[in-house]
Amino acid sequence: MKGNPELINTLNSLLAGELSAINQYMVHAEMCEDWGYTKLHNLVEKRAITEMKHAEKLIERILFLEGTPIVSHLNDIHIGATIPQQVDNDHADELDTVRDYNEAIVLAGEVLDYATRDILTEILQDEDRHVDELEELQDQIEQMTLQVFLSTQN
Questions:
Q1: Which end of the chain has the smaller Cβ count within 10 Å, N or C?
Q2: Where is the Ferritin-like diiron domain (predicted)?
Q3: Each residue's pLDDT tens digit, 101-110
């Protein structure tokens, strides 16, 4: 099924975001592991795996729409040198991602591609959960202090 070119370009842009997030999260996860924060490592690694699944869905949809998935483009990756920087960078990126998915959902509706819109809506729900998880971490760091928070992450 030949898809709308603007929508395919938008899907490729979303794919670049997902591939970038995978890289950022994997580096953050491994940094957490290296520092001995196993719980944080597991949480961030799980988020990276979710992003991998999103990338897979986008690739499948682009191919279905007879487009070419572009996997060589990445957005800027923001590696944090500390846990608070990592959480803040991840949160900022997720907020951008939520905005991008909302805009893509509108476009999919405008070009009458409701199946793509449904896929994007499903992914958006995961991204909303990521924002919520990251805001929860930010709140915990603020309320507990960083030292107490980190002592709970072994």
A1: N
A2: 1-145
A3: 999 999 999 9
